[in-house]
Design brief:
Layout: H1 3-113
Length: 124
């Protein structure tokens, strides 16, 4: 093989080696970029996880607070219902007393008119 042909073949291999080295550099740059993106993605996922955890805790606290408020409201409602029942009983007693007093006053008025017990003006 002649020196010129040998040099041509070596130059061809060198050119191909240079092409391969350039591809390797590009691949390496892409790998570094991908690694950077993966780190950023990991950081975003970590932050999202922290925010979700905080939101869950906050929601849990709010639900507990709401449940406690509902329980207090239920107790207050029960107390109001019991109080209303007592009032209803008292009003019934008052109604009965008023009716009895009214009957007694009517009897007194009838006696004062001289008609005795019973309706006014009834024959004695």
């Amino acid at each position: 093989m002649a020196d010129g042909e040998l040099l041509e073949r070596i130059e061809g291999h060198m050119a191909r080696g240079n092409e391969l080295m350039e591809l390797i550099r590009e691949d390496h740059a892409l790998n570094r970029h991908e690694h950077t993106l993966n780190r950023r993605e990991h950081e975003l996922n970590r932050r999202e996880h922290e925010l979700n955890r905080a939101a869950v805790h906050s929601t849990r606290d709010a639900v507990r607070s709401l449940a406690a408020a509902v329980e207090k409201q239920a107790e207050a409602s029960d107390a109001m219902l019991a109080s209303l029942g007592d009032m209803r009983d008292s009003i019934g007693d008052m109604r009965d007393s008023i009716q009895a007093n009214t009957r007694a006053v009517l009897i007194v008025l009838d006696e004062l008119r001289g008609s005795g017990p019973g309706p006014a003006g009834a024959p004695a």
